[in-house]
Amino acid sequence: MPARGTYARGAKRREEILGVALATLAERGYHATSLRGIARTLDIDPAHIGYYFGSREGLLREVIERWDADLHERTQGLDQFEVLLDALRFNAGVRGIVHLYLSFAAEAAQETHSAHAYFITRFEGHAARTAETILEGQKQGLVRATVDAGDAARRIIAIADGIQMQWLLDPSLDTPALLGATIDDLFVTGTRTRVRPASSSPPVASVDSSVNGGGAYLLRLPRRCWSSD
Predict the structure, then answer these.
(1) Are 21 and 38 in contact (CB under 8 A)?
(2) By CB count within 10 A, which of 71, 93, 98, 229 is most buried?
């Protein structure tokens, strides 16, 4: 029983550290966040953070994993296009986390970096899920048949990250709109809607021709499909 209690306290402390790290990074940004500062907020020795996470890089990686997990939970039932758009809408409120992600990913390009393999796996996963959505959209007659799913998926992810980098320099940029325009270009004119999994039935939708100046139609789906709540 004492061992179980010790484990529970350790798990709680780990969550506390992760929570403070997330809040500090979101508020102060990547370079202004230190293990000492996080430890000071929690009134613990910085060595405790190393005990639970191994290193600063280990903690930052888990922050990004938690960020990804929150996105996954928030976007259940959406296709990968809407997952990416939801991420950009949400990220507008957590500038420091975006800075962390882009900076940490750039550092991890070094083969010797502890998170190198993690980021390769992360990018491959996003590319695979995006390509899957494109292929399914082609089967449903929504996405143009001439689109190469693999190439388009990589391009969409590159644009999503690139416009967020530009947004850090110019916060007036509407990142979801810029990415959305790129995604819209994949669709057959008049068919823009959520790409359904093969086994799902069509959601009720209404056409709003006012979007994009009356050009390509956007099907307005029920709030359950679009809400990030």
Answers:
(1) yes
(2) 98
Q: Would you call 206 helix, strand, or coil by DSSP?
A: strand
Q: Mind giving me the DSSP string for 90-159?
A: HHTT-HHHHHHHHHHHHHTTSTTSTTHHHHHHHHHHHHHHHHHHHHHHHHTT-B-TT--HHHHHHHHHHH
Say which residues have a Cβ less than 8 Å from residue 199's Cβ, sequence separation at least 6.
none
CB 186 within 8 Å of CB 144: yes
Q: Which two tokens stand for residue 9?
A: 């306290």
SS3 73: helix
Burial class (CB in 10 A: 0-12, 13-18, 19+), 215: exposed
Domains and CATH numbers, the chain: 1-54 (1.10.10.60), 55-226 (1.10.357.10)
Condensed to tens digits (0 to 9), the pLDDT of residues 66-104 reads 888 888 888 888 889 999 999 999 999 989 899 989 998
DSSP structure class, residue 217: -
